[in-house]
Protein backbone atom coordinates (compact mmCIF):
# COMPACT_ATOMS: atom_id res chain seq x y z
CA UNK A 1 0.00 0.00 0.00
CA UNK A 2 1.37 3.34 -0.99
CA UNK A 3 1.02 6.24 1.37
CA UNK A 4 -1.23 8.35 -0.86
CA UNK A 5 -3.32 5.68 -2.62
CA UNK A 6 -6.90 4.74 -1.72
CA UNK A 7 -7.07 1.62 0.43
CA UNK A 8 -10.26 -0.44 0.22
CA UNK A 9 -11.96 -0.92 3.57
CA UNK A 10 -15.26 -0.98 5.45
CA UNK A 11 -14.55 1.42 8.29
CA UNK A 12 -16.73 4.37 9.27
CA UNK A 13 -14.46 6.70 7.33
CA UNK A 14 -14.62 4.51 4.22
CA UNK A 15 -18.43 4.60 4.33
CA UNK A 16 -18.64 8.32 5.09
CA UNK A 17 -19.81 10.62 2.32
CA UNK A 18 -16.68 12.08 0.66
CA UNK A 19 -18.03 15.64 0.72
CA UNK A 20 -18.67 15.48 4.46
CA UNK A 21 -15.21 14.01 4.91
CA UNK A 22 -13.69 16.84 2.88
CA UNK A 23 -15.46 19.46 5.02
CA UNK A 24 -14.28 17.59 8.15
CA UNK A 25 -10.68 17.77 6.91
CA UNK A 26 -11.07 21.52 6.35
CA UNK A 27 -12.54 21.98 9.86
CA UNK A 28 -9.66 20.05 11.45
CA UNK A 29 -6.99 22.06 9.61
CA UNK A 30 -8.76 25.35 10.35
CA UNK A 31 -9.02 24.37 14.02
CA UNK A 32 -5.29 23.60 14.11
CA UNK A 33 -4.51 27.11 12.85
CA UNK A 34 -7.08 28.85 15.03
CA UNK A 35 -6.06 27.17 18.29
CA UNK A 36 -3.07 28.82 19.95
CA UNK A 37 -2.75 26.75 23.12
CA UNK A 38 -0.06 24.05 23.01
CA UNK A 39 -1.99 21.61 25.20
CA UNK A 40 -5.13 22.05 23.10
CA UNK A 41 -3.12 21.34 19.94
CA UNK A 42 -1.64 18.21 21.53
CA UNK A 43 -5.16 17.08 22.48
CA UNK A 44 -6.30 17.70 18.91
CA UNK A 45 -3.40 15.63 17.54
CA UNK A 46 -4.15 12.78 19.96
CA UNK A 47 -7.84 12.88 19.01
CA UNK A 48 -6.94 12.64 15.35
CA UNK A 49 -4.68 9.64 15.98
CA UNK A 50 -7.58 7.92 17.75
CA UNK A 51 -9.87 8.73 14.82
CA UNK A 52 -7.33 7.32 12.37
CA UNK A 53 -6.97 4.11 14.36
CA UNK A 54 -10.55 3.33 15.37
CA UNK A 55 -12.81 5.15 12.87
CA UNK A 56 -10.63 4.99 9.75
CA UNK A 57 -9.25 1.51 10.46
CA UNK A 58 -5.67 2.53 9.61
CA UNK A 59 -3.08 0.74 11.71
CA UNK A 60 -0.72 3.10 13.49
CA UNK A 61 2.08 0.65 12.67
CA UNK A 62 1.29 0.98 8.98
CA UNK A 63 1.08 4.74 9.32
CA UNK A 64 4.25 4.79 11.40
CA UNK A 65 6.35 3.48 8.53
CA UNK A 66 5.76 6.75 6.74
CA UNK A 67 5.34 9.01 9.77
CA UNK A 68 8.51 10.95 9.01
CA UNK A 69 6.63 13.02 6.44
CA UNK A 70 4.33 14.21 9.25
CA UNK A 71 6.60 14.38 12.29
CA UNK A 72 10.05 14.91 10.77
CA UNK A 73 9.57 18.54 9.66
CA UNK A 74 7.68 19.24 12.90
CA UNK A 75 10.83 18.53 14.91
CA UNK A 76 12.77 20.96 12.72
CA UNK A 77 10.11 23.64 13.18
CA UNK A 78 10.22 23.18 16.95
CA UNK A 79 14.01 23.57 17.13
CA UNK A 80 14.16 26.55 14.76
CA UNK A 81 11.36 28.56 16.32
CA UNK A 82 12.51 27.74 19.86
CA UNK A 83 15.81 29.53 19.21
CA UNK A 84 14.53 32.27 16.90
CA UNK A 85 11.71 33.65 19.05
CA UNK A 86 11.86 37.46 18.57
CA UNK A 87 11.36 38.70 22.15
CA UNK A 88 12.33 36.08 24.76
CA UNK A 89 11.65 36.87 28.43
CA UNK A 90 12.32 33.60 30.30
CA UNK A 91 15.74 32.63 28.92
CA UNK A 92 16.75 29.01 29.55
CA UNK A 93 19.94 28.90 27.49
CA UNK A 94 21.93 31.88 26.26
CA UNK A 95 24.23 31.16 23.31
CA UNK A 96 24.99 34.82 22.65
CA UNK A 97 23.77 34.77 19.05
CA UNK A 98 20.54 32.89 19.79
CA UNK A 99 18.61 32.29 22.99
CA UNK A 100 16.44 29.38 24.05
CA UNK A 101 13.47 30.66 26.01
CA UNK A 102 10.30 29.28 27.54
CA UNK A 103 8.23 31.49 25.25
CA UNK A 104 10.20 30.30 22.24
CA UNK A 105 9.62 26.65 23.12
CA UNK A 106 5.88 27.27 23.49
CA UNK A 107 5.85 29.11 20.17
CA UNK A 108 7.88 26.34 18.48
CA UNK A 109 5.63 23.62 19.88
CA UNK A 110 2.52 25.44 18.67
CA UNK A 111 4.00 25.74 15.17
CA UNK A 112 5.29 22.15 15.15
CA UNK A 113 2.05 20.50 16.28
CA UNK A 114 0.07 22.07 13.46
CA UNK A 115 2.12 20.34 10.77
CA UNK A 116 1.41 16.66 11.68
CA UNK A 117 -2.27 17.50 12.26
CA UNK A 118 -2.62 18.80 8.71
CA UNK A 119 -0.49 16.07 7.12
CA UNK A 120 -2.28 13.23 8.95
CA UNK A 121 -5.64 14.73 8.00
CA UNK A 122 -4.66 14.74 4.32
CA UNK A 123 -3.28 11.18 4.53
CA UNK A 124 -6.37 9.69 6.18
CA UNK A 125 -8.60 11.50 3.67
CA UNK A 126 -6.73 10.04 0.70
CA UNK A 127 -6.45 6.54 2.22
CA UNK A 128 -10.19 6.28 2.87
CA UNK A 129 -11.68 8.20 -0.07
CA UNK A 130 -12.51 6.66 -3.43
CA UNK A 131 -11.64 9.30 -6.01
CA UNK A 132 -14.62 8.47 -8.22
CA UNK A 133 -17.07 8.77 -5.34
CA UNK A 134 -15.45 12.00 -4.20
CA UNK A 135 -16.02 13.60 -7.60
CA UNK A 136 -19.61 12.33 -7.77
CA UNK A 137 -20.30 13.53 -4.24
CA UNK A 138 -18.78 16.94 -4.95
CA UNK A 139 -21.09 17.32 -7.96
CA UNK A 140 -24.23 15.95 -6.31
CA UNK A 141 -23.91 17.08 -2.67
CA UNK A 142 -21.80 20.25 -2.85
CA UNK A 143 -23.06 21.28 -6.30
CA UNK A 144 -19.50 21.84 -7.52
CA UNK A 145 -19.19 22.52 -11.28
CA UNK A 146 -18.08 19.49 -13.27
CA UNK A 147 -14.81 21.06 -14.46
CA UNK A 148 -13.75 21.96 -10.91
CA UNK A 149 -14.70 18.51 -9.64
CA UNK A 150 -12.56 16.94 -12.35
CA UNK A 151 -9.60 19.12 -11.37
CA UNK A 152 -10.02 17.92 -7.78
CA UNK A 153 -9.91 14.33 -9.01
CA UNK A 154 -6.74 15.05 -11.00
CA UNK A 155 -5.08 16.52 -7.91
CA UNK A 156 -5.92 13.43 -5.84
CA UNK A 157 -4.97 11.06 -8.65
CA UNK A 158 -1.67 12.75 -9.45
CA UNK A 159 -0.07 12.25 -6.03
CA UNK A 160 -0.24 8.40 -5.91
CA UNK A 161 0.71 8.18 -9.59
CA UNK A 162 3.82 10.30 -9.05
CA UNK A 163 4.67 8.26 -5.96
CA UNK A 164 4.30 5.01 -7.91
CA UNK A 165 6.35 6.24 -10.86
CA UNK A 166 9.07 7.50 -8.54
CA UNK A 167 9.31 4.07 -6.91
CA UNK A 168 9.52 2.36 -10.31
CA UNK A 169 12.31 4.69 -11.48
CA UNK A 170 14.33 4.23 -8.28
CA UNK A 171 13.98 0.43 -8.53
CA UNK A 172 15.02 0.50 -12.19
CA UNK A 173 18.17 2.47 -11.34
CA UNK A 174 18.92 0.09 -8.46
CA UNK A 175 18.73 -2.90 -10.82
CA UNK A 176 21.21 -1.15 -13.13
CA UNK A 177 23.65 -0.73 -10.25
CA UNK A 178 23.10 2.94 -9.47
CA UNK A 179 24.52 4.01 -6.11
CA UNK A 180 21.41 5.26 -4.28
CA UNK A 181 23.44 6.33 -1.26
CA UNK A 182 26.12 8.35 -3.00
CA UNK A 183 27.95 10.90 -0.88
CA UNK A 184 29.07 14.32 -1.94
CA UNK A 185 27.08 17.21 -3.39
CA UNK A 186 28.02 16.54 -7.02
CA UNK A 187 27.17 12.84 -6.86
CA UNK A 188 23.86 13.52 -5.12
CA UNK A 189 22.99 16.15 -7.73
CA UNK A 190 23.71 13.66 -10.51
CA UNK A 191 21.61 11.03 -8.76
CA UNK A 192 18.64 13.39 -8.42
CA UNK A 193 18.97 14.41 -12.07
CA UNK A 194 18.80 10.78 -13.20
CA UNK A 195 15.64 10.32 -11.13
CA UNK A 196 13.75 13.58 -11.65
CA UNK A 197 14.13 13.88 -15.44
CA UNK A 198 12.54 10.45 -16.19
CA UNK A 199 9.88 11.19 -13.58
CA UNK A 200 8.98 14.49 -15.25
CA UNK A 201 8.83 12.83 -18.69
CA UNK A 202 6.61 10.02 -17.41
CA UNK A 203 4.24 12.37 -15.62
CA UNK A 204 3.85 14.82 -18.50
CA UNK A 205 3.80 12.34 -21.39
CA UNK A 206 2.34 9.05 -20.21
CA UNK A 207 -0.06 10.20 -17.50
CA UNK A 208 -1.12 13.26 -19.51
CA UNK A 209 -1.88 11.16 -22.58
CA UNK A 210 -3.87 8.66 -20.52
CA UNK A 211 -6.01 11.43 -19.04
CA UNK A 212 -6.58 13.01 -22.45
CA UNK A 213 -7.72 9.68 -23.92
CA UNK A 214 -10.01 9.14 -20.95
CA UNK A 215 -11.66 12.54 -21.39
CA UNK A 216 -12.18 12.07 -25.12
CA UNK A 217 -13.46 8.49 -24.89
CA UNK A 218 -16.07 9.48 -22.30
CA UNK A 219 -17.15 12.65 -24.14
CA UNK A 220 -16.30 14.92 -21.26
CA UNK A 221 -18.18 18.23 -21.54
CA UNK A 222 -20.36 17.12 -24.47
CA UNK A 223 -23.58 17.65 -22.51
CA UNK A 224 -24.63 20.36 -20.09
CA UNK A 225 -26.31 17.93 -17.69
CA UNK A 226 -24.97 14.66 -16.33
CA UNK A 227 -26.83 11.50 -15.37
CA UNK A 228 -25.66 9.32 -12.49
CA UNK A 229 -26.01 5.61 -11.92
CA UNK A 230 -25.43 6.12 -8.19
CA UNK A 231 -26.96 8.83 -6.04
CA UNK A 232 -24.83 9.86 -3.08
CA UNK A 233 -26.25 11.44 0.06
CA UNK A 234 -24.63 11.95 3.48
CA UNK A 235 -26.10 9.86 6.29
CA UNK A 236 -27.24 11.13 9.68
CA UNK A 237 -24.09 9.66 11.25
CA UNK A 238 -21.93 11.61 8.81
CA UNK A 239 -23.68 14.88 9.66
CA UNK A 240 -23.50 14.16 13.40
CA UNK A 241 -19.76 13.43 13.16
CA UNK A 242 -19.13 16.66 11.28
CA UNK A 243 -21.22 18.72 13.71
CA UNK A 244 -19.30 17.19 16.62
CA UNK A 245 -16.01 18.46 15.19
CA UNK A 246 -17.51 21.86 14.49
CA UNK A 247 -18.54 21.87 18.15
CA UNK A 248 -14.94 21.06 19.15
CA UNK A 249 -13.74 24.03 17.10
CA UNK A 250 -16.26 26.37 18.73
CA UNK A 251 -15.39 24.99 22.17
CA UNK A 252 -11.70 25.77 21.69
CA UNK A 253 -12.49 29.29 20.51
CA UNK A 254 -15.04 30.27 23.14
CA UNK A 255 -13.10 28.76 26.07
CA UNK A 256 -10.05 30.86 25.26
CA UNK A 257 -7.79 28.14 23.79
CA UNK A 258 -7.79 29.90 20.45
CA UNK A 259 -8.21 33.37 19.08
CA UNK A 260 -8.90 33.90 15.39
CA UNK A 261 -8.16 37.59 15.56
CA UNK A 262 -4.93 37.02 17.44
CA UNK A 263 -3.84 34.38 14.94
CA UNK A 264 -4.70 36.41 11.88
CA UNK A 265 -2.93 39.51 13.22
CA UNK A 266 0.23 38.28 14.91
CA UNK A 267 0.30 34.45 15.08
CA UNK A 268 1.44 34.57 18.70
CA UNK A 269 0.62 31.46 20.77
CA UNK A 270 -1.26 31.85 24.02
CA UNK A 271 0.77 32.20 27.20
Task: Characterise this structure.
The protein is mainly alpha-helical. It folds into 2 domains: 12-135 and 233-265, no CATH class; 145-217, no CATH class. 68% of the residues lie in helices and 3% in strands. Strands 1-2 form a two-stranded antiparallel ribbon. A hairpin with a 4-residue loop joins strand 1 (91-94) and strand 2. Helix 2 runs antiparallel to helix 6, helix 3 runs parallel beside helix 6 and helix 7 (131-140) packs antiparallel against helix 8. The chain is flat, with a radius of gyration of 22 Å.
For the largest beta sheet, what order do the strands appear in spatially?
1-2
Major sheet attributes = 2 strands, antiparallel
Helix and strand content put the structural class at mainly alpha
| Tally of DSSP β-strands | 2
Q: Could you tell me the radius of gyration in angstroms?
A: 22 Å
Tell me the series of helices and strands, N- to C-terminal.
Answer: HHHHHEEHHHHHH
Average pLDDT for all residues: 81
From the N-terminal CA to the C-terminal CA, the straight-line distance is: 42 Å
Q: What's the domain count?
A: 2
- The helix content, as a percent range, equals 55-70%
The total of helices stands at: 11
The percentage of residues in β strands lies in under 5%
Which overall shape is indicated by the principal axes computed on the Cα atoms? Answer: flat
Question: Spans with pLDDT under 50 lasting ≥5 residues?
Answer: 261-271
Amino acid sequence: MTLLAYSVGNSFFHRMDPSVKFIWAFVVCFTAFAVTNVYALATLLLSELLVIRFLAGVSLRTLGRNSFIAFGPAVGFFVIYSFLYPSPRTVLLDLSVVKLSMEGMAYGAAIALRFPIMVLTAIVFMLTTDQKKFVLSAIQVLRVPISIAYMEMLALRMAPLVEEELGNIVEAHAVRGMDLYAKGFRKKLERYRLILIPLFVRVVKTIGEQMAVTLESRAFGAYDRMTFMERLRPSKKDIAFLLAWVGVFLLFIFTGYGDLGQYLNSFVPAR
